[in-house]
Design a protein that fits this description.
InterPro entries: EF-G-like_DII, EFG_III/V, G_TR_CS, P-loop_NTPase, PrfC, RF3_C, RF3_dom_3_sf, Small_GTP-bd
Bound molecules: guanosine-5',3'-tetraphosphate
Binding site for GTP: 14-21, 82-86, 136-139
Helix content: 10-25%
Subcellular location: Cytoplasm
Protein name: Peptide chain release factor 3
Strand content: 25-35%
Number of strands: 31
Largest sheet: 8 strands, antiparallel
GO molecular function, one term: GTPase activity
Length: 513
């Protein structure tokens, strides 16, 4: 793709089953990046079974080739970053959001906002990422559109602005009305796109027309004003209705997406904002995928280009160490293949073969100043396990491995006071599996896991917590910075604690990690 083509880089935030994969596929089809549906989902089609990535990846069907996808639409290069969900939900899912300029929130019209959407939304909010909303599954009997808008406004404290409005839903679905140009996109069983001016439309019954008029009048009078500034700073979300499965409203969404999504944004590094227009190349590593091939220890580091131009084979400097290196092996990712990339521009994601030089959050520059992009945030873990080495004689490798993998961001480490037992924390179960696998394969240490029932971590921000305030349902540990953290089994244990100790203030970590 040409260096002059504008870039738009986004990720989908959604709860499993809301339709992320289906929508992604339809978008790729529109951009001509894939020719048939069912190509993206390795999990079900088994398309990626031949990939030579680590065993877990094979079993799960997670593939680097679906980590980043590209499509060209209306002369805009769109980079889609995958946000793994289900049992693959991990810190990487969150970290991916640090590398995008826009998020698309997919909501199931039947279920409304669900837990995982909310978690991912919080990361977008923290980073001020603009959000476009696609309310999916309009072909099913879902919640009332007005109720869905209120749910977004109330739960997420974000203004909404509907870009189109449904006429009916489920079996009664007739179409979506475009508020900007007074046209209706009709829903038909053939899934063919048909748009007519509302005035010319003869298919709506009187009551359907009346309901539409009433609802759009209400939106005009009581709804929010559109403001691109508010969209860009995440205060207002444009809302689109449609059905990914029926390919209904998807193209209309994409037409608007290329206009509304944010271009590559300036990013903070070493105390200043680095403009994408800046000539010198710079970027940061937001994810490292390890052990592509068990015979080699290589891994792929995912680099987000932030400024300047990336050229394959160019000499770069790793800011953290000052080490110079040549990036000869670099790849871009398409839906079905990995391709060698020769150049990449701000907004693009490049995969770089790494023999262990990089850490998540590293900045690399093409010369000039040694910038350091803002530190990668840590995210509150929800799964915990006490660990020991099965063979106590291997304690050297055990400590070395843990130190390395913690540094790489594979897992988070906590220690109990006094005995300094090791407790590892993760956002998702997959991280434990990756940790176990890598400890065994790279450090030759078998790990004994003692899975804990605790699910909530709370940092003590005020007051002191002593051992006598804890029990099996709430446990006191220290994080790597030596901060006190309480692990709770559930909300009930947390509430019980806060009621009993009003002087102790706790934070869920979203704001302090
Ligand atoms: P995810 O990636 O967010 O987890 O969701 P995915 O696209 O896999 O969709 C989850 C299920 O919802 C799939 O059905 C999919 O076909 C269905 N779906 C997606 N979009 C729509 C829509 O607009 N309308 C309706 N009615 N269904 C939709 P499944 O039976 O679980 O899987 P599959 O066997 O069809 O792949």
């Amino acid at each position: 793709m040409s260096v002059d083509t504008p870039r738009r880089t986004f990720a989908i935030i959604s709860h499993p089953d809301a339709g992320k994969t289906t929508l992604t596929e339809k978008l790729l089809l529109l951009g001509g990046s894939i020719r048939s549906a069912g190509t993206v989902k390795g999990k079900k089609s088994g398309k990626y079974a031949t990939s030579d990535w680590m065993e877990i990846e094979k079993q799960r069907g997670i593939s680097v080739t679906s980590s980043v996808m590209q499509l060209l639409y209306k002369d805009v290069q769109i980079n889609i970053l995958d946000t793994p969900g289900h049992q693959d939900f991990s810190e990487d899912t969150y970290r991916t959001l640090t590398a995008v300029d826009t998020a698309v929130m997919v909501i199931d019209s039947v279920k409304g906002i669900e837990a995982q959407t909310l978690k991912l939304f919080k990361v977008c909010r923290m980073r001020g990422i603009p959000i476009l909303t696609f309310i999916n599954k309009l072909d099913r009997e879902g919640k009332e559109p007005l109720d869905l808008l209120s749910e977004i406004e109330e739960t997420l404290e974000m203004e909404t602005y509907p870009m189109n409005w449904p006429v009916g839903m489920g079996k009664r679905l007739k179409g979506i009305y475009s508020l900007s140009d007074d046209t209706i996109e009709k829903y038909n069983d053939l899934h063919e796109r048909e748009i007519t001016p509302l005035a010319d439309d003869k298919s709506l019954a009187d009551y359907e027309r009346e309901t539409l008029e009433e609802e759009t009048l209400l939106l005009e009078e009581a709804g929010n004003e559109f403001s691109i500034e508010k969209v860009r700073n995440g205060a207002l979300t444009p809302v689109f209705f449609g059905s990914a499965l029926a390919n209904f409203g998807v193209q209309s969404f994409l037409d608007q997406f290329v206009k509304l999504a944010a271009p590559p944004q300036p990013r903070k590094a070493s105390g200043e904002f680095i403009d994408p227009e800046r000539q010198a190349f710079s970027g940061f590593i937001f994810k490292i995928q390890a052990n592509m091939n068990p015979n080699h220890r290589d891994r792929i580091a995912f680099l987000r280009v932030c400024s300047g131009k990336f050229d394959r084979g160019m000499e770069v400097i790793l800011s953290r160490t000052g080490k110079k290196m040549k990036l000869n092996q670099s790849h871009s990712f398409f839906a079905s293949d990995r391709e060698t990339v020769d150049t990449a521009m701000p907004g693009d994601i490049v995969g770089i073969y790494d023999s262990g030089n990089f850490q998540v959050g590293d900045t690399i520059v093409g010369g000039g100043e040694l910038l350091q992009y803002e530190e990668m945030p840590q995210f509150p873990p929800e799964k915990f396990a006490k660990i020991t080495a099965k063979n106590a004689l291997k304690h050297k490798q055990y400590h070395k491995g843990i130190e390395q993998l913690v540094q790489e961001g594979t897992i988070q480490l906590y220690k109990t006071p006094y005995f300094e037992d090791y407790i590892i924390g993760a956002v998702g179960e997959l991280q434990f599996q990756v940790f176990e696998y890598r400890m065994k394969n790279e450090y030759k240490v078998d790990i004994e896991f003692n899975h804990m029932t605790h699910e909530l971590a709370r940092w003590v921000t005020k007051g002191t917590v002593s051992d006598d305030m804890t029990d099996s349902r709430k446990m006191l540990v220290n994080d790597q910075q030596g901060r006190s953290v309480l692990l709770f089994e559930n909300d009930f244990a947390l509430r019980w604690f806060t009621d009993k100790h009003p002087d102790v203030e706790l934070s869920s970590g979203w704001d302090i990690l």
